[in-house]
Write a structure and sequence with these properties.
The structure is a single chain. By secondary structure, this protein is of the alpha/beta class. Helix content is 21%, strand content 27%. It has four helices and nine strands; from the N terminus they run βαβαβββαββββα. It has a six-stranded mixed beta sheet. Strands 1-9-8 form a three-stranded antiparallel beta sheet. The structure holds inosinic acid (IMP). The site of inosinic acid has 17 residues, from strand 5, helix 3 and strand 8.
Length: 205
């Protein structure tokens, strides 16, 4: 099994991400023709996506940020999170779109959604760049999905490996996470300014 793992490769390049972000922005604008709209980013992973997404939404909107951390360190918090940084503004009477980098088990987002709904917004919808539905535990209605994500660790476009490589402009699949952790320089060829390496499996579709 270990021997079959490929080196890291591009799952979605920056061009296809930009095209999809434009479509998502247009859909959000169309679905919210009026009213007070606030996009909430969950730090840190969602920040890169949010920065591009808001510039693809041709209407007035606000942005706000939350930072959360799991309760305890045993991984058994059931998605309960501690709010490390709360929203700056109230959300009552406003339409909220939570912008996420990736939804995996969905536990974090389901819990966050319940916290936000208790504040009486008009609506709380989710926009995620990547949806790894195969690992979903908490049922979640995700209104806007950039791409379905296979059951692989991914890095770049805001997603980190040990807090690094969020600045990779592509979404890169890392099949052997332990090897990448041992030698993070294996991801440097995907950094900005380096031409996208075009191996057969690097080309989307
Ligand atoms: P979950 O949906 O509650 O399981 O957690 C989703 C969060 O876990 C995301 O917002 C990311 O911060 C992190 N995460 C999940 N999968 C990955 C990945 O493949 N790469 C980097 N971060 C990930």
């Amino acid at each position: 099994m270990v021997g079959t793992r490929r080196p890291p490769y591009v799952l979605h390049d920056s061009g296809s991400i930009a095209a999809r972000v434009a479509e998502l922005g247009a859909a959000i604008a169309e679905d919210h023709p009026a009213g007070d709209l606030v996009l909430v980013s969950v730090l840190k992973g969602g920040a890169v996506f949010l920065a591009d997404l808001i510039r693809a939404i041709p209407r007035s909107l606000s942005v706000d940020f939350m930072a959360i951390s799991p309760f305890g360190s045993d991984g058994d918090a059931g998605g309960r999170v501690r709010i490390v940084k709360d929203l700056d503004e109230p959300i009552d009477g406003r339409a909220v779109v939570v912008v996420e980098d990736i939804v995996d088990t969905g536990l974090t987002l389901a819990y966050l959604r319940s916290i936000l709904l208790a504040r009486h917004p008009v609506s709380v919808e989710v926009c995620t760049l990547l949806d790894r539905a195969v690992r979903r535990i908490a049922p979640l209605d995700i209104r806007y999905v950039g791409f379905d994500c296979p059951d692989l660790f991914v890095v770049g476009y805001g997603l980190d490996l040990d807090q690094h490589h969020r600045n990779i402009p592509h979404v890169v699949a890392v099949e052997d996470v332990a090897a990448a952790q041992a030698d993070p320089t294996c991801l440097d060829r995907f950094l900005p300014g380096v031409p996208v390496p075009l191996a057969a499996h690097d080309v989307p579709e």
